[in-house]
Amino acid sequence: AHGRVVGVARGAPGGGDGAGVGEERIAVGVGGRGLAQHLQLGELLDAEGEPGADLGVDAGLARRLVRDVQERAGRRDHHPLRADRRVGCLTAASAVADTSAWLLIDAGVGMARFNHALVAGPAADTQRAVADAVEWFQRRKAEPTFLLRDPMDAPLAAEVAKHGFVPAESEPVMLLENLDTTYSPPGDLSIRPVYQPADIARYAEVDAPAWHIVTRGIARTVRDFPDFTMLLGEVDGEAVATSMAVVTDGLVGVYNVQVRAAYRNRGFGRAMTAAAIDVGRRAGCTAATLQSTPMGLPLYERMGFSARYGITVYARTGALE
């Protein structure tokens, strides 16, 4: 049999196709007949990790399908790890540690919201992995948060709960697989990259006042990271909106989409998102990813993004207040 991958998606809550949350589905065009088979990733492999023999799909094709799904998922999951490293370079007190299971970041600003434990690889011993992460932050006298994927990191979630961490916030990770559509910004909005210190300060001031110092530090740090582009939206010379593009292995991550309250509902959020996507398109990217707040979700869905899985922030009670 011959086939090609024509789409990869994850089930969404309440979806009508029978796929559960976080389960990869693969649509395959087989034998040139356009026959669509929706196969969950687990169904392609037997207990030994080899392609199943009873699927009516050639073993070589099955392997290619699995590799395609794993490559896409790996690129998507790698983005937050790469983007979050900028938070570990904010001050002289900042620190980053890489382990087989975690990327651990102490932002050094005394705010748990910016101290992250992100999953970087499989944990052979979840109890030991979580204990090691908690101990690392304890040694640094920093209060952490754990950012875990739903439902893939359920064993880790159960373990962090034993240390007093509870779900505090959750956002969907979304993917856009067609970057062909372009958008023109509203006529009164101009968008440009940020390079100079004075512009970095203006970029940071678009964010919430309580975070100006942190955002300014992140923006200042980003200048030294390859393939990171900060974008500033202005109206009559006033900074009113921001976004950031992070290009990794053909995938562009869209971060820090912010619009000042007085300028919302004017298409600026869409324009800043599209500008970040365009950075990726020009760099040869074929897909875009982002994490969405509840406010931004309807916009991103209209732009063609679809949810793949959730990221839940686990924190101790009161740590994010």
Summarize the structure.
The chain is an alpha+beta fold and 321 residues long.
Strand percent estimate: 25-35%
Q: Mind telling me the C-alpha Rg? A: 21 Å
Low-confidence region ranges: 1-57
The separation of the N and C termini measures 57 Å
How do the strands of the widest beta sheet line up side by side?
4-5-6-7-14-8-13-12-11-10-9
Mean pLDDT: 77
Given the helix and strand composition, which structural class is it? alpha+beta
Number of strands: 14
Helix and strand element order: EEEHHEEEHEHEEHHEEEHEHE
- Taken from the alpha-carbon principal axes, the silhouette is globular
Helical stretch count? 8
Query: Which percent range fits the helix content?
Result: 25-40%
Let me know the largest β-sheet.
Answer: 11 strands, mixed
Describe the structure.
The protein has helices at residues 41-44, 59-84, 126-139, 154-161, 197-205, 212-222, 268-282, 297-302, and strands at 3-10, 24-30, 35-40, 95-98, 102-106, 116-119, 145-150, 165-176, 190-193, 228-235, 238-248, 251-259, 287-291, 306-316. The chain is of the alpha+beta class and 321 residues long. α3 (126-139) crosses α4 and α5 packs across α6 (212-222). It is globular and about 55 Å long. The protein has an eleven-stranded mixed beta sheet with strand order 4-5-6-7-14-8-13-12-11-10-9, sandwiched between helices. It is built from eight helices and 14 strands.
SSE order and pairing:
Layout: E1 3-10, E2 24-30, E3 35-40, H1 41-44, H2 59-84, E4 95-98, E5 102-106, E6 116-119, H3 126-139, E7 145-150, H4 154-161, E8 165-176, E9 190-193, H5 197-205, H6 212-222, E10 228-235, E11 238-248, E12 251-259, H7 268-282, E13 287-291, H8 297-302, E14 306-316
Helix pairs in contact: 3-4, 5-6
